[in-house]
Specification:
Largest sheet: 11 strands, mixed
Strand content: 15-25%
CATH architecture of the largest domain: 3-Layer(aba) Sandwich
Mean pLDDT: 82
CATH superfamily of the largest domain: P-loop containing nucleotide triphosphate hydrolases
Helix content: 25-40%
Distance between the termini: 102 Å
CATH class of the largest domain: Alpha Beta
Number of strands: 35
Low-confidence stretches: 250-254, 772-783
Length: 923
Amino acid sequence: MSWAAFITPIVMAGALWLMTRSPYSLAFAALGPIGAVMSLIEGRRGGGRDRRAAQAERAAELERLRERVAASHETLRRGLLRRAPGAAVAIDGLDGSGLWKGDETVVSLGRGAVDSGLVLGGDARTTDELELQRAAARLDDAPVLAMPEDGIAVCGPGLLARAYLRGLLVQLYAALPPGRLAPPELVDAAGCARGEWDWLERLPHGVGSASGVVPRFGVFEEARLVPPGFRAVVSLVSPVAATVEVFPGAPATGIAAEHAPVEASVVPELVAYAEVERFVAVLSSRAAALGLGAATRALPAEVAFGDLPAAGGPRLGASIGRTLHGIAELDLVADGPHAVVAGVTGSGKSELLVTWVAGMVSGRSSDEVVVLLVDFKGGTAFRPLAALPHVVGVVTDLQHGEAARALSSLSAELRRREAELARLGARDVVEARGALPRLVIVVDEFAAMIDQFPDFGPLFADIAARGRALGIHLILATQRPAGVMRDALVANCPLRLSLRVQSDADSRWVVGTDAASRLSAATPGRCIVSIDGAATEVQIARTTSADLAALVEAAPAAPPPKRPWLDPLPAVLTRAQLPERATAQVVGVADLPEEQRRAMLEFQPQQAPLVVLGAGRSGKSSLLRLLAEASGLEPVVVGSDREQAWDAVEAAAERCEDPDASSAPALLLAIDDADAVCARLGDEYAAVWCERLARVLRDGPAAGVYAVVAAQRQTGPLRGALGLARETVLLRQPSKQEHVLAGAPAELWDDAVPAGGGVWRGRRVQFLAPPHLETSAVLRDEAPGEPPARVPLVPPRGGATIVVSRAPARAVSRARAAGLPAEAVVDLTQPPVPGTPTPESLLEDGRLPTGVLVIGDPDAWMGRWSLFATLKARHPVVFSGCDQADVRALTRSRVLPPPLAPGSGAGWLVFADGRMRRCVLAA
């Protein structure tokens, strides 16, 4: 409370006392102190609540931060273990696929505490915050890494030091294949004199030239005896404890700067001499199988993928086979960014692509690289790769439109990656630091794809031009690339591979020499690799299903990658496949490949009138009932029965003319097979029915009548009525021409689209399957038409039945058989008998035990027109076995009577006011 608020009541009280001289006015002076005290109390209470809430929020935030730090630590620890898993893992994995899969010359000195590289910003104001900052910067139980080329000295008792150094050497030679390491520089006079390091000479790495990394190790009794040149010094205290000391060096060498040890103590790994003997034997056997360790004069006829080491480099390196000088490695990032592969049928082109993909994903997670496979030979070549978690799709030419849809969505992937790089403020995928995995698109039979989809040529040229920065790489394989690939596309493909081709010209076009045309057909998988014009002969490795299964099992754990294209819409869509947020109004999903998403389709009655067009068995009837259920209104569902369709549309048209119809509950009128209804009604009835239907479509929403009409084709008068609909759903059409004429995009034509699939609002859509409707009993049966009235042939006493019939004798026989006396029948087709009562007298007498039946054919009634007019004004008239022309001629009305189903035996009952309905003469 401010001083002004405290003093104001006192001043006002004094002023009032001066004016009124009343002592009561001085009571106002107490308001100031009372208000100040109350404000102080309330402020303290409120401050306490806010302080407790802030403390609870801070504690929760610290706990969430601790969980994030722990998760980051675990990720970092797994990453360090992948780089240097240790001696025990190297020895245990000798018989597996992990041998020679390392990417860098690094070893683990033991498990200890290292710098995590995590920095929590802000000023630590409390003990908890300070402890969390310190804990985040420290990574416990992690490998302490060192690079042997910088020199590693091991100090301690000779037996212990040499067992420890054997562990470092085992790590190094199990990770890197021959050709990547030169013979080591080893300082250990006593050990060399006793032959304890002779096993190094039997390693395949020590044979041949001295190219590659030169590791440096030394064994010393004490740390003070270590000469200059060793950056890391390990002092063994006991078999289970050691200390590490790092001397200053270049930032990029020595122990990794981002994970330097924060404590001197580590837990070392020791390896016995017997273990290295087995280690040497296994490595020598594997190298001999690959022809490594000595110069070979000829390439092997077959190479197994399981015997290849992982390619070096953190990019997209892959070991694909053998050259005369060792392992053949390709790197799409360093040698690409795109590649062209040529080869005739049977040359091993598909095997090359499978091996290349397997080599690229080996040892990498789907966070680093994903692969999209496009095969225009039916998909058999890439089928084994589909199980890899890195493969985000296998597109084939088996299903119409699938390839076009998948490849078109690549444009959306380009836009998505550009937007993500812009959000990160990165110029390319390298600066994004793993936020985007590299995407490799492998196309087999590229020429066939361009022939079938020529519009994709510019798309692939655009990907080739922008792919390097966006992390998208192309591997395009074909039998004859000359004349198929555009210059703009080929100019961005410096990496060329050619298996056997048919002509020298094809070979020169791909690799710049004639060598590929001279490869033997007896050696599939023999290939010429050209990188920036330098050609090398390679024998491509064969990848088996067991090799791929091992890759799947060894793949690092990672969340499912984001796919660059969506799966095609399912052939059968159930409500269980919809998202949980789907409402009852959702009737299907729409395909949006250019946005890489699907959209739910909702049906609201306000979208009516709606027309559904589709060929037979395309799902029209199911969709009609689905829309009726989703509308939430009272449904009136009618089929192709002409009586039902006539009555339903007539009732709806009458409601549209009723000024009070809008106050009645709204209803949904669903008419199935409208074109079949028109065909069964005939020309005259069809014209009237379509006129009434047009009125319902035009004026129905205002009267609360929402119509959905299904038909196979818009023909005759039906075309004008259906043209009043707001929207049209196009299911499968009999031909592409009818599909386009109905207003749908030509590229969405598919003669194999499943039932319930079609086009709505220019999008490919799939509606819910019929089994979903089984829970709705009210919609299963079609709405029946108005039942016919029953008119007795034997009228009650004092009554009369007036009948116009084409066969009056048959009706008279039925009436007499039902008990009508002969004197109660007046047959106008028979000549009058003198002395018998006239029809007028019989109708006025009323003394007969029954009523009177007056019957005649249309001609007889036309001859007694005055009698017909008199009787029609008093009694309903039955027309039995007549047609609408007879009704119109006798009633002098232009209104069509309702149609009759053939063979139903029904007729029409015409009332005095002109109304007509169906009826039957009941005996």
